[in-house]
Design brief:
Strand order of the largest sheet: 6-9-10-3-11-12
Number of domains: 2
Bound molecules: adenosine-5'-triphosphate, magnesium ion
Radius of gyration: 35 Å
Low-confidence stretches: none
Oligomer: single chain
Number of helices: 20
Strand content: 5-15%
CATH architecture of the largest domain: Up-down Bundle
Structural class: alpha/beta
Largest sheet: 6 strands, mixed
Amino acid sequence: MNILWRALSFLRPYWTTATGAAFSLLMVTAANLALPQIIRRIIDDGIQGGHLSTVLWGALVLVGLAAMRGVFNFAQGFWSEKASQNVAFDVRNMLYDQIQRLSFSYHDRAQTGQLLTRLTSDVEMVRQFTGMGLFQFINALLMLFGSAALLLWMNWQLALLTLATVPVVLAVLLRLISFIRPLFEQAQAKLGRLNTILQENLAGIRVVKAFTREEFELNRFRAANLEYLNLNVRALRLFSSSFPLLFFIFNLGTGGIVWMGGEMVISKQLSLGELAAFITYLNYLMFPLLMVGMLGAMTARAAASARRVFEILDAQPEVTERPGAIVLPPIRGRVAFEDVSFRYAGSEHDSLSHVSFVVEPGQTVAILGATGSGKSTVINLIPRFYDVTAGRVTIDGYDVRDVTLSSLRSQIGIVLQETVLFSGTIRDNIAYGRPDSSDEEVIAAARAAQAHDFITALPDGYQTVVGERGMGLSGGQRQRIAIARALLLNPRILILDDSTSSVDAETEYQIQQALEQLMRGRTSFVIAQRVSTVRSVDLILVFDAGRLVARGTHEQLLEESEIYAAIVHSQLL
Ligand SMILES: Nc1ncnc2c1ncn2[C@@H]1O[C@H](COP(=O)(O)OP(=O)(O)OP(=O)(O)O)[C@@H](O)[C@H]1O
Ligand SMILES: [Mg+2]
């Protein structure tokens, strides 16, 4: 119930439109309820009383009522749909905003397909509920109670006979709703699963083909698709088996009315017009009851979807700005780890334990270590992608948790291990962090990243459009664009995660020459696989299983660290 109220609160900004829709609906209902009374007058006073003028007037009023119903029907349909479309628009934006704000740790665990389903299909369910669902529900209740009241007013004995069927119908409907709700909830979850498989598969289609796993993936998809179908069929079966039962109960009621009402008309206790009106109201009673049933199921579905939407909206970003976080002033670039330990959410062991080091402004640091030793983890903590589990990370003496995220991250240039480019031109991609940069700045950054030459060799140069993952470019080219993108920020702190691993030795040498210049005056962290990269750096940090096991320059480490000596030895061979 709370969930539904909360979903309805999205209508608040559109209350005028919603009120207009509700008012129109009221008028439609009023016209519907008045109709049988007019017919009763036509039959009793006009036809049976022999007054043709009453019949004519009655016919005119019927036409008038129909016109009025048409106008208000249109207004109601348009306004309620408009309000609900606006709600969907807002909810999609809110979800997107929240997804942008959630931390790395949330996205580590979230499945893209599930997020997509919530943003599309679940939002649609909530929309239908806030639009059609709510209004039709009120309409149905008004029709139900209005018809019941008019029936009781016209003839209470006959009315009670009719109304006796209502509790039975309601019982059947409630049973239907209670069974169907969990099915809908499962169906949305299955749809999310289906989308996850689909999304994963599309993203990895090359791997699938390379390993000839099409058959396997197809079966996996089919299985999930079948589960989704089965759930829907089960819901459908419940639905369709309930309705004939409802109709039967109703027809029993109609039978009773015709029998008893007919007897009453014959014995002059009831007029013919009243019997006609009675039968019409009986149908009116039937319609809203079925409607309530349908809407009950729809509401159940909306509640399930709204819960999934709110689950995202209510998720707490783990990395948040503390109240009163200050804006980090322009930094010099002194980075210090003070007894830092870190464990990923849901992980069994620390990925970093008791790591302490200091990097002075302008120094270049190389981070070495076996795969999984914690290199990427170290650099993830500097822009505060994750919060430390113990200890602290400071920049120029400021704890990174005390400053605003944007002032921190905008001063750090980062090239992540996985290169992601966005669909758009190469220029747009390089200027991603500072879209207002001039062409000269973009070109300077590209030159520094050794990307300028290959970019100008492309037919469209900087205007070449790259796909969502930069298809049409080689791995090394993509990486160099990512480096240019980081350099363009002109950051005090530059972080390169494995950024030279997928270029050839010659290009690596060139990048290095350029980077050496670029790194001058910046604090730079380079995660490198090759010893050649680290010869000339100021400080080498060697990690092993989350521990900082050795530090120093190349010469120092060669003498002091067995692990380092081993790494160098293996690469020289
Ligand atoms: N998002 C995550 N959630 C849970 N555990 C993680 C996550 N990322 C990394 N880990 C774990 O933390 C440890 C360190 O990982 P990290 O990515 O820092 O390694 P790395 O030194 O960068 O390795 P590589 O050279 O392969 O990039 C590993 O044991 C890894 O399994
Ligand atoms: Mg890594």
